[in-house]
Amino acid sequence: MTNRTEPEQVAGNGLLHRRLFLQGGAAAVGAAGLELLTARPAAAAEPPDVPQWMKAPGAGMSGHGERSRHESHVQRTVGSQPGTTGSGGSRTPLEHLEGIITPSALHFERHHAGVPDIDPDRHRLMIHGLVERPLIFDVESLSRYPLVSRIQFLECSGNSGANNAPEPPQQSAGQLHGLVSCSNWTGVPLSILLDDAGVRPEARWLAAEGADAAAMTRSVPLEKAMDDAMIALYQNGERLRPENGYPMRLFLPGWEGNASVKWLRRLKVLAEPIMAKDETSKYTDLLPDGAAMMFTFPMGVKSVITSPSGNATMRGPGLYQVSGIAWSGSGRIRRVEVSADGGRSWAEAALDEPALPKAVARFRAAWRWDGGPAVLQSRAVDETGAVQPTRQALLESRGPQFRYHYHAIQSWRVSPEGEVRNVYA
Amino acid sequence: MSTPDRFMRGSSLCASMHGPRGGARQVHARGPRPARLVAVAVCIAAGAASAQQRQASPEAADAAAPSVLTAPGESPQLGEPATPEQIAGWDIGIGPDGENLPEGSGTPSQGAEVYATKCIACHGEDGAGGPNDVLAGGHGTLTDAAPVRTIGSYWPYATTLFDYVRRAMPYTQPQSLTNDEAYALTAYLLELNGVIDRNDVMNADTLPRVAMPNRDGFMWAWPDWKQ
């Protein structure tokens, strides 16, 4: 291990300058300087032995690829509501992933009556209500429209809500915060279709309805629909996964996931919101005086360290990479800071390129763990200047009943034994 | 909710959400449109600073840039006209004004019979005690540490109940209820919550006029809420 080019400490408890992760930085330090959290498996293939997989031809080609069988443990965490199999959610295993794109098979799920098995040839999208020309589209016709393609996150507004509890749940990063995922979405700008239909002047809202067994419905402001809303057809280059709305879904960048209605079949243009079940009895938040906020659409600026993170075990003192994700429903992530001493001091993290608007950004920091107790935190700032709040500040500002839109700083305590645990700090 | 006084009780929330960069705060009440719609208040971070911030954001610049893809006339115009019959077959949505409510009617006692056969397993006797959502009770709990958000204690519109029951319930047989059954279940659940009397009839005329106890309990966060 070389120390001669190791960056100086820039914050308490061993946080090093981010130039370690800027261009050439890692090479200057040398790969040997970075411990990986993943344990190196013992195998008989190590030098001087020649591994078995080099002594016979490997598997053939395939029409549709699968991940390595050694990665099958990387799974979403599934939770169903009582008495149902299709109502509930599954969470992305954030602690197992890197980069900014969530593999489609690991994108989080939130369904209200299961995943419908939709025949794309028979699926239709109807646009009607306050329009001059009510229209019906099929998948084939929408696929012929000029498509746009963007990398953007989707987050359920119930994400991280477990941290509202009085005691910190002992869960992994994915189990706590895995109702966020980030994909390359490709589809038709909704504004084009609304222009085709001819929206009347009195129109202000759309009621978006899915073709699932709950006919899940949300009201969407026309302003958002005409701004950056998309009828998404593709996810990460392939057609949408069934659990993400195949063959078409509404996608509202930066807004709470529930409003991006999957399996979209109908858009009714209205003057007022339809006041569906999910925007009145659910996805609304009580204030201390008993009043509630509704239509809390944008997702707040947020970040979480995914490595090391909850329920991981460190491999002993040494130089570590702290890695995590940050995102904001209001635009780009401008800066992420990392603390190893529970927020007393902060070091600026390096941001991977690209750091796109309303997308997950990947941050990295270098940390020399001395084996003592530490509390790791990350704090994101977006391009509007919004700063991710502490848990205490968030709860104080909203009161104890605010259920959704939890976006406070996550604290991971590292014990001298190397155990990483969720704590409120 | 329509008065500034009521809204200002939540002003600490606004201050924290807008933070030090929020400009002058205003209280803005939307008028009832239509008349029965709850008047709602939103908090606005007004002031030149935030306006300039919005204009200067890179995203705003991107949005203002001309795009050949979204220019008028570029659409291939591939939508097929939707006929009134097609629309009528699919349009199951009911808003607070009650427009589009179907013919039919039901009473609480009729609804109790439907409930006993199709709902009780998930929602329990008298709308509570089942494995799924609690439907009744919870009155006066919205300021408690553990509020019970039910139809009677929380839901602002009776039309939502009919809309949801008809489109999504029973869980294993959605869109199987007759309109009479949907009205009857709606009537039963409203009566269970003490919102209507046991002899009231729910139909397209009466349902939109039901005054829910928590109708004025909601503020719109859109369009100015920021975190």
Describe the structure.
The complex is a heterodimer of chains A (425) and B (227). Chain A is mostly beta strands. Chain A contains seven helices and 26 strands. Chain B is built from nine helices and six strands. The radius of gyration of chain B is 22 Å and the shape is globular. With 227 residues, chain B is of the alpha+beta class. Chain B has two domains: 4-60, no CATH class; 92-209, Cytochrome c-like domain (Cytochrome Bc1 Complex, Chain D, domain 2). The two termini of chain B are 21 Å apart. At the A-B interface, strand 6, strand 7, helix 4, strand 15 and strand 17 of A face helix 2, helix 4, strand 3, helix 5 and helix 8 of B. Strand 17 of chain A pairs parallel with strand 6 of chain B, so a sheet runs across the interface.
Largest sheet of chain A, if any? 6 strands, antiparallel
- Write the CATH fold name of the domain at 125-293 in chain A: Sulfite Oxidase, Chain A, domain 2
**What structural class do you assign from the helix and strand content of chain B?**
alpha+beta
Intertermini distance of chain A: 33 Å
Give the topology string of chain B: H per helix, E per strand.
HHEEHHEHEHHHHEE
Radius of gyration computed on alpha carbons of chain B: 22 Å
| Overall spatial form of chain B | globular
Find the CATH superfamily of the domain at 125-293 in chain A: Oxidoreductase, molybdopterin-binding domain
What name goes with the CATH superfamily of the largest domain in chain B?
Answer: Cytochrome c-like domain
CATH class of the domain at 125-293 in chain A: Alpha Beta
Low-confidence stretches of chain A: 25-33
Q: Mean pLDDT of chain A, rounded to whole units? A: 93
Largest interface: A-B, 86 and 74 residues
The biggest beta sheet of chain B is recorded as: 2 strands, antiparallel
Instruction: Report the portion of residues of chain B in β strands.
Output: 5-15%
Q: Alpha-carbon distance between the termini of chain B?
A: 21 Å
Overall 3D geometry of chain A?
globular
Question: How many H/I helical runs of chain B?
Answer: 9
Helix fraction of chain A by DSSP (H/I, runs of at least 4): under 10%
Please report the total strand number of chain B as a whole number: 6
Helix coverage percent of chain B: 25-40%
